C-alpha cells in the first residue's frame, strides 16, 4: 500500500517541487496551500489538493488528523538561516530558529511513538523568496536610519540571486524525497546553494568574524566629494 504524504505550502517553490517528486515516486500526496488555484498542475498529476492555512490552527488540525496514522515521519523545512543570523533578517531568522527548536523537541517527544522528525536546511534557492524579501526590506527600511545599509543589502541580495549560487527548488525536493524514503534518516540535511560551506563557517569562525563576513553586503557605498 502506498504511503501518504501531507505537504504544506505546495502551491509554489520547494513545496510544489516536493509534491511533484513524491507523486512521481508513487506516494499518495495531499498538497496543501492557501492559493489552491495555483495547484492545477499537481492536481492533474494526481495530488489531492487541500485548502490549508498554517496560521489557522483548526484547519491544520483537521487536515492532519484526517491523514496521519499512528506512525510516520515529520519533515520540517528550516533553513541555514535557522543556524545563523544576517542583517535585516531578524523576523526571518527568528522563525527559522524556532523551527529548529520545535523540531528538536518534537523529535524527543515523538520518539516513543516511532515518529521521526527530520529538519531540512536549504541554502540559496531559486524561488519567490528573494524578491519578496528585497521588496519588504525597501518598504520597511528603505528610508530613515537604515536607508544606506538597506539599499546596499538589497542590491547585494539581487546580485546573489542572479549569480550561480542559488540552486533550483528541485534540489531540495530530492533531498526531502531521500529523507522520506530512508529507513533511518539523518536528523538534519543541509542542501542547496552554499548551505554546507556557510554552516561550516558558522561553526569555525568566532562570532565577530562571522558578523563581519555577513555584513559585507550591507556596507553603504561612499559618495565621493568633488
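Sequence proposed for the structure above (226 residues):
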Amino acid at each position: 500500500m502506498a504511503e501518504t504524504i501531507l505537504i504544506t505550502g505546495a502551491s509554489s517553490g520547494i513545496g510544489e517541487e516536493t509534491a511533484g517528486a513524491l507523486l512521481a515516486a508513487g506516494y499518495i500526496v495531499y498538497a496543501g496551500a492557501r492559493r489552491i488555484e495555483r495547484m492545477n498542475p499537481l492536481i492533474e498529476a494526481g495530488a489531492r489538493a487541500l485548502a490549508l492555512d498554517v496560521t489557522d490552527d483548526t484547519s491544520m488540525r483537521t487536515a492532519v488528523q484526517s491523514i496521519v496514522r499512528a506512525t510516520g515521519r515529520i519533515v520540517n523545512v528550516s533553513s541555514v538561516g535557522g543556524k545563523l543570523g544576517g542583517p535585516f533578517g531578524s523576523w526571518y531568522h527568528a522563525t527559522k530558529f524556532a523551527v529548529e527548536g520545535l523540531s528538536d523537541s518534537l523529535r524527543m517527544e515523538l520518539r516513543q511513538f516511532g515518529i521521526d522528525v527530520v529538519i531540512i536546511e536549504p541554502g540559496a534557492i531559486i524561488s519567490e523568496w528573494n524578491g519578496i524579501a528585497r521588496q519588504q526590506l525597501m518598504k520597511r527600511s528603505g528610508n530613515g536610519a537604515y536607508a544606506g545599509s538597506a539599499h546596499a543589502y538589497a542590491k547585494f541580495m539581487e546580485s546573489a540571486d542572479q549569480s550561480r549560487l542559488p540552486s533550483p527548488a528541485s534540489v531540495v525536493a530530492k533531498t526531502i524525497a531521500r529523507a522520506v524514503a530512508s529507513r533511518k534518516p539523518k536528523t538534519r540535511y543541509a542542501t542547496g546553494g552554499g548551505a554546507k560551506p556557510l554552516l561550516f563557517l558558522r561553526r569555525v569562525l568566532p562570532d565577530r568574524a562571522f558578523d563581519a563576513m555577513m555584513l559585507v553586503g550591507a556596507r553603504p557605498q561612499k559618495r565621493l566629494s568633488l
